[in-house]
């Protein structure tokens, strides 16, 4: 008996993006709920049996009531079963976002899987085995009970868990709340729906991370999608369709300027897609740049700041390196020359505690010079 | 440039003066006050800097007082080794002529050439002012009294600056450099305040504060969040407790234990009841045994009482008999004593009567004596009283009293007085008849030997003569009338008194007085004999008479009634009284003994009666009791009760043993424990449930604020603001460093720019004040301060002498510099060192000498003596 469901996770609603000031941040915040709404709509259109949210639907247990209410409202377009799994951000503590949701009065199609108990709402077609986190960091594997969990004959056993799969995730991924890589196999699961990793990823046989539907960080992973999963019958291979639902692209650009010009940085920005309006860009600049080029770069970056949704620049690694031309552009007579020479010496002395101040001073003088000249 | 010759005509107070042969180096021009030495400097300024066509006040100032002449000035000077001649005339036919090597100018071209040669800018119109229009000569030529003031660089600044720049090269950054510095300063001031140790300000400060505030907020929210977390942990713990209770069914098991303990208690209660019932039964039997025993005791006691009552009766009867015989004996004795007492009392009475009789006889005799005396007195007094009454009756029979007599005498006196007055007023006619002719008045004859007094109109018939009518004087008639009235009054008073005349009245009144005196005399006699009055005396006599009569009832002869007899009788009386008293004592003692014995008899008889009654009662009682229950029956009942009691005691101890075996204390303790356990578990569950509910409510309220969201928001904002603050800090540091570096560089450059001045000044200063320096303002080139031994002193703070020395030295140094750059520089000092002391003046002369090696210096002075030793030619005007 076939079972179709929508797998998503890591909505992290209530994430404030306060480091992105003004309207840009506000839009990012409100978009998260809008994305949930579009997920509900897709589920409706694709007639799924259930939506499994594999943890971290909320950014924390301490989000405001307003956020909770708005989220519940966003679920309305899909009247089928919503199975919410408490994750590490929204663990099922004694008092949690889930108990608060309950207190608000939930529609019956919304299920909080806050106990390790099988859920069978589909007339035996499927049994969902949740592994809720009841503290932020569980020391024991919460999926262990899957192996012995009962399910009716002929139903698809689908695991729902939140954490990192042991030995599989790249880099220094969070290694708490570990899930054994062979859990799906050992527990006879048709599919293990996971959350925590924000990129879409098949991590082990029948074991999938859907990733966050709306990206929220400059991490080079494949965020911004959901899965529509079809299990045709128990033990049949899963069919997974990836749908992009994310609105904003979080792009990180690392550029080292090596020829003293800002050309490479500008080229990288030019390389953004036409949808740059929905780009949240982090531009990390390193290397060295002449004062003239610095001036040009700043003018150009001003334009880009206006173009993209948000542009964050880290140029702390970009060193001003005034060229002789730069310095010649300043008056080469009188005390100015003397000052320039002194600042240049200090700027180029890495041992000088004021070397960066000296670089800044030179840049300022250069800009003043052009401001006067203009 | 060197001045060679100056000729002045008609300029102010100078008519004509020529100063020629002016040398290179020092020249002294001396003149007394008012001689016009200062005018020379004014003329020189006019020649060089005033346009010849100048009018108005400037021109008028050149004219001598009240004269209309043509001021004219000729100046010969060398310039770059070439001789020049300048001639200028003002006011009338104003003209100018400038002749130099191969050139000659007049009019305006001459003025233009002059300005070009000396580097000044003439005014558009009006007078030329030294500081505004005369280039460096505002600086180098010093008017009298101005030498200690500021240099007055003014219009000479540009020349000086160019001279300095030509010497030190272009060290300053020019306009652009200044603009950069200004921009750097402005930017620095955006970030920092102007304290010595600058503090952040404005936006920069706000950023820093913003970060601090966010940190504080973050900490606050973190604290709240951790409290929130703690509460959640607590909630979880409480829920665990409840779950454990539920899982262990702790309350149910406690309830079960409680019910079991209660059953045990019920059982022990029953045993306890059995024990107490047995005890009660035992007590009942005890009571019964005691009752039979008591009854038995009572019966035995009663038997004993009957016996003792009988004994008591016998004893009482014996005692009563003894008492009766004692009483009979005492009765006899008492009777004898009483007889004796009767005899004694009779003897004493007889003696009493005898004494009384004698006393009465004596008293009787005395009373009679007193009566006789009183009767004698009474007779005397009664006779006096009769006399007194007679006198009073006599007085009463004469009614005339003193007042009436006085009235009569008064009436007589009035008549007499009136008669006298009538006599006085009447006409006295004395007849002296020749013969004895008769005289009659109104028919009545008159004895002519008696003078006639006439009081009213009378007609005298004089015999032999006829009739004579006499009219007496005024008032006699009224007097006569008054006399008649008075006589009438007298007569009436006499009639009233029943008297014939006044003398009779007087005699009668005397009789009355005599009678009254007699009455008074007798009254005094009575008073003497009967002070209390006659009646009292009579009463006394009567009383005495009664007393005497009463005392007369004795039959003693007066010889027996003597005091000696009385004394004898009294002695006898005393003896009889003593005998009587002794008898009385004896009698009363015997009477008392008899009474006591009589009472004793009664008491003893009473006792016999009582003992008899008691015996009868007891015997009756015993008999009645025995009728109810015999002594044997009673003994049997007692034994039966003893047996029953022993059986009850044994039953009781059996029940107690059973209870002891059931251990009631343990049962109670078990129940208490079960109760407490049940109660505490129930309380714990209730309390924990309540706490869980409270925590849930509290957390619900706390959760509403979205603390996590707040914290994440603050953290995000903090990181953003920190980045912004860091950027600001970098900018602020850059701005500060830029300004510091630029201003330091500029300052150093300026030091170099004024270097030549310092170089020139140094050797002069060394001559007057070693270890000192003069610092000029870089901008204005005015003297800013004087540095002595490393201590700064503002120029204005120096003494006048020091100021004029510093100023002169600076002018010389600047003149050196100007000269070095090829500018025509002659120094003229008009009494510029008047405030300098002698010693310093000497040193200043050395300075002047030193300067004069390269400069031409003109010294105008009114103190020739000061400059005699200068070693320069002195020209006098």
Automatic annotation (TrEMBL), chain A:
UniProt keyword terms in alphabetical order: Exonuclease, Hydrolase, Nuclease
Entry-linked InterPro entries: Calcineurin-like_PHP, DNA_Repair-Maintenance_Comp, Metallo-depent_PP-like, Mre11_N, UCP033093_metalloPase
Q: Tell me if Transcription regulation is a UniProt keyword of this record.
A: no
Q: Does the keyword Hydrolase apply?
A: yes
- Gene Ontology molecular function, alphabetical: exonuclease activity
Q: Which PANTHER family match?
A: COMPONENT OF ATP-DEPENDENT DSDNA EXONUCLEASE (PTHR30337), NUCLEASE SBCCD SUBUNIT D (PTHR30337:SF0)
Q: Where is the Calcineurin-like phosphoesterase domain?
A: 3-164
Query: Which Pfam families does its entry note?
Result: Metallophos (PF00149)
This protein is called DNA repair exonuclease
Automatic annotation (TrEMBL), chain B:
Q: Which residues form the Endonuclease GajA/Old nuclease/RecF-like AAA domain?
A: 1-308
Q: Which UniProt keywords apply?
A: Coiled coil
Q: Where is this region: Disordered?
A: 579-600
Please, which domain of life does this record's source organism belong to? Bacteria
Tell me yes or no: is Magnesium among this UniProt entry's keywords. no
Against SUPFAM superfamilies, the record matches this protein to: P-loop containing nucleoside triphosphate hydrolases
Q: Which InterPro entries match?
A: AAA_GajA/Old/RecF-like, P-loop_NTPase
Coiled coil: which residue ranges?
Answer: 204-238, 268-333, 364-428, 476-522, 678-731
Q: What is this protein called?
A: AAA family ATPase
List the lineage, top down: Bacteria, Pseudomonadati, Pseudomonadota, Alphaproteobacteria, Hyphomicrobiales
